[in-house]
Amino acid sequence: MPGDVLSQSEIDALLSALSTGEMSADEMKAEEEKKKVKVYDFKRALRFSKDQIRSLTRIHENFARLLTTYFSAQLRTYVQISVASVDQIPFEEFVRSIPNMTLINVFEVPPLDGNILMEINPNIAYSMLDRLMGGSGTSYSNVDNLTEIEQKIMTNLFERSFENLREAWENIADIDPVFVELEVNPQFLQMISPNETVIVISMNTIIGETSGMINICIPHVVLEPIIHNLSVQYWMQSKTKEPTEAQIKALETKVKESDLELIVELGKSAITIEDFLTLEIGDVIQLDQKIQEPLILKIGDIPKFTVQPGKLKKKMAVQIIESLNGGEEDER
């Protein structure tokens, strides 16, 4: 019984059977080898490892949070979206699992090849439409009779919602989702062969008082060029990239355009509180700075240059004499 923990009495019975000849070691080995044989269904080819499925789950959990924020802002009502399951199944099985009349948004995701499907349960879709039209979010299913205005409203809503996928996928691929078409009958979808493996991300969706499912269908052919990015090693490695020459130049330009506060101190003096309280206009305060000594120019609180005072175009000015090593003021 591989994987099971035997009790002491079961262990004793097994040893007793071996010692009395009721069971031979060869029979035990044959039984163990027989149990190792597993049935494999070639129609349900497993193209993704468990590790890659977990990575896709994390990515689309983030996508679900982004969709929750987006739809909440657009519909101005309570919205909750969460990932219910992530499975790999044949495309034909996915088509059979969704309603005969539903809303299916087809997207391209360049530079990757192939299309991604976003299927929205009609109850959810019409609840969204009712909210957008000023209603309370009442759901009524009438997918086969969508007017052109209703199609345009829904297309705009779902097209902008799918832009959140770019942010959710940014750690594995730089994609640019593009809306292709809105389909209502899944039987008309001929984008891949029926037996092609697809990843289906099912998300529980609540819009006000209405609940339903949103399904994302991603064919294996779309993920194949970036499938190595779904491994644990890729997620664990540093995502830090060396800046390009253009980025460095742009940063230098921005830094050079920054404003700095320059301070030149004429000197310092210490007086008593009594003298301070009796100061009047015309009084002279003696500073500790000698006239023949240069002044200190500071950037912020850091001394950077020695300067001499003067005038430029009828304004006070200073001329730089030399820089201070290490930005520290020399003790005088």
UniProtKB/TrEMBL annotation:
Task: Give the main location.
Answer: other
Task: Recall the GO molecular function terms of this protein's record.
Answer: cytoskeletal motor activity
What keywords sit in the KW lines? Answer: Bacterial flagellum, Cell membrane, Cell projection, Chemotaxis, Cilium, Flagellar rotation, Flagellum, Membrane
Q: Which residues form the Flagellar motor switch protein FliN-like C-terminal domain?
A: 254-323
GO cellular component terms, semicolon-separated: bacterial-type flagellum basal body; plasma membrane
> Which Pfam families would you find in this protein's record?
FliM, FliMN_C
Which locations, inside or outside the cell, does it occupy? Bacterial flagellum basal body; Cell membrane
* Keyword field contains Electron transport: no
- Give the InterPro entries listed for this entry: CheC-like_sf, Flag_FliM, FliN-like_C, SpoA-like_sf
The family database entries (SUPFAM superfamilies) matched by this protein are listed as:
CheC-like, Surface presentation of antigens (SPOA)
| Membrane topology listed for this record | Peripheral membrane protein
Q: Name one GO biological process term.
A: bacterial-type flagellum-dependent swarming motility
Alphabetized PANTHER family for the sequence: FLAGELLAR MOTOR SWITCH PROTEIN FLIM, YOP PROTEINS TRANSLOCATION PROTEIN Q
- Mind telling me which NCBIfam families this protein's record contains? fliM_switch
The record's similarity note reads: Belongs to the FliM family.
The protein in question is named Flagellar motor switch protein FliM
Q: Which gene encodes it?
A: fliM
